[in-house]
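quick one
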Amino acid sequence: MLPRRTFLRRAAAMAAILGVDPTRLLRAKTAPLSAAPMKGERFKGGHMLATWNHGLVSNAEGWRQMQQGGSALDAVVEGTAVVESDPTGTSVGLGGRPDRSGRVTLDACVMNAEGHAGGVCFLEDIEHPVRVARAVMEDTPHVLLAGDGARDFALAKGFEACNLLTEDSRKAWEEWRQSAQYHPIINVENHDTIGMIAQDLDGRLAGACTTSGLAYKLRGRVGDSPIIGAGLFVDDEVGACTATGLGEAVMKTLGSFLVVELMRQGASPAEACLEAVERISRKMPVDDLQVGYLAMDTQGNAGAQSIHGGFNYARSVGDQTELIDAPSLR
Ligand code: ASP
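structure w/ aspartic acid:
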């Protein structure tokens, strides 16, 4: 823990860099790490952060991958793939809520320590968009494939087509069609993307983000989750960030890139996430708008922040995991 005087001095210096009120930064709390490395050294204990309650199962699988010699990329891809397969999760993969025409369309992306990235958006009929995103990164010269092209690519790679609309989701959609009203509700059902960032036992970073997007969205709508820099950004020299919530707000502020760039300038993960949500709240009305950011640096520090309360995340260091409520502006 920093002595209070050092912390205040540091907050004032950061505030000058960011051009913000220094007292505001005092509210940003970075979760401490018990086995923190020496200043400047990379953390190598297996550090994972994943959004919402389903982050618990993602991190458990991520740790399993790392113990078997898997990289941070293996951890985030296979960790989030577990959530994609869960039919009870209504915002990711199988069982995801459909668009207003009744079709489930998926968005995902990955980014690795070398700065390579891959993504798919508006993808139908494929249970694991995050694995397809990895294939885009590793097997093509491109970053993002969309719609039928992404589906054709997935099928050519051996992914099987399946029906993603579960009976529960179909019934919920039928009910929604009675009124066909669209009001995004904070933290409830219509946005719970899984974003996962990790640092492996060699200290390398990677991230993945996967979602079915907003429930009953306009057909063709793509959110922030497959957009590198918006839903996810990784820079192995600095840190990683992922986002959840209303993708339009994240895209307009290129949120995850912003968080990593603020960390590059010296902000802690918590300070950077706070500034990124405040940037949104300064630019648009946020009464009905939730966004949450989750970030880590290379030294094993973590931070998160949301606009409204209710955003939580799973943090694992090795096999120790806790579910943490993120601080919120409101
Ligand atoms: N960010 C996602 C989107 O806008 C939604 C979510 O986080 O659940 O598509």
